[in-house]
Amino acid sequence: MRFLDPIITLFKVAFHHATLSGDFYKCDRKNFSDAGVEFFVALLFSTMPLWLFPIFSPLIFQADMPGISSYIKGGELFIYAAALMGPLIYIIAKRYGEFEKDSKFKLSISFPHGMTFVVMAMLICVFSGLFIGIIRSPLVQSYSNKLNMGGIFWASILTYSMSLYIVFTASVYRNALEDHVRRGGQSREADEFASEFKEARDAT
Fold it and tell me: When you count CB atoms within 10 A of the terminal residue's CB, does the N or C end of the chain come out lower?
């Protein structure tokens, strides 16, 4: 698997200055590969209602059956995006978050870009809920011919793509933190990685 090293290095450099992936350079190859496997398995099974029937229906039915696009053209990906973000908010806030002793409302998160993850996930949930509410509202449906369904379709794809990016990035960081715990702090890079998170947490 050493042939993947140049690709992973380019990936780290390309996303070094991105909002959520700026600390990718502190993660090793195994963190990315493990996150990739987790990401693929989650994507495969979570989207099965969208692709399973369109792929296998030609083997069962002779008539033309609707394709995958027919299952998402109504903005259904907004639901999938919100479904991905809900558990992520809970896991980061519950497992890596801690309320300050002097305040029940001040939450510090010892996770890379932890608060940014939570805020972005919440925004995606709100954004998705708003669009699904608009699309499914009986009042709006009576004026469905005035809705730009093409724009809604691409907005749902963009929102879902962002949610996938957030999930993958969070998985990479989680794997890096778990590796640090397993190694008992023997890796200098992992020590720096965890120390910076601790300093950021203490500063909040």
Answer: N
